[in-house]
Amino acid sequence: MPIAAVLSALISLFVPSQATALATQPPPPPASTGAARPPILQRLPPALRGQLAYMSMQDHYVDVRTDKGGTLVLMRFADAIAEAAGVPGLQIHRSHWVAAAAVADTVRREGRLMLRMRDGTELPVSRPYLAAVREAGFPTRAG
């Protein structure tokens, strides 16, 4: 029994306690102040991971566009929209979703409302989504 007490005393002198070890570790880095990147961007090549602008369906692929370019991703459109969570935007057509910050203007083409994106692309707004476009603050009576 005395040997165990001596060994315990020696170990406590030379091995720092867990509390001491934790106190000497550097603090964890502060939480990022910027918004987290939407998961959809992880599906893009690193060179294209910019600000999400819009997404459009093409057959079984989603054309994901950022301010750095775009590429096709094989996935369901509903899943792509879910992965864009955190980016203010809205679905404007069964085949198109836009980030609000990427919309430059609204225009009318042959009586149809179109959203002009900052890259010049014009995307149609279908009737079922017209109210959502109005609620988002985009003018719907463009000339």
Overview of this protein structure:
This protein has 143 residues and is an alpha+beta fold. It has a domain at 39-135: OB fold (Dihydrolipoamide Acetyltransferase, E2P). The chain is built from four helices and eight strands; from the N terminus they run ααβββαβββββα. It has helices at residues 2-14, 18-24, 77-83, 127-135, and strands at residues 52-58, 61-66, 69-74, 89-93, 96-99, 103-109, 112-117, 122-124. The strands form two sheets. It has a five-stranded antiparallel beta sheet. The protein is elongated.
Brief digest:
This protein has a domain at 39-135: OB fold (Dihydrolipoamide Acetyltransferase, E2P). It is built from four helices and eight strands; from the N terminus they run H-H-E-E-E-H-E-E-E-E-E-H. The protein has helices at 2-14, 18-24, 77-83, 127-135; strands at residues 52-58, 61-66, 69-74, 89-93, 96-99, 103-109, 112-117, 122-124.
Task: List strands and helices in order, with pairings.
Elements: H1 2-14, H2 18-24, E1 52-58, E2 61-66, E3 69-74, H3 77-83, E4 89-93, E5 96-99, E6 103-109, E7 112-117, E8 122-124, H4 127-135
Antiparallel strand pairs: 1-2, 1-5, 2-3, 4-5, 6-7, 7-8
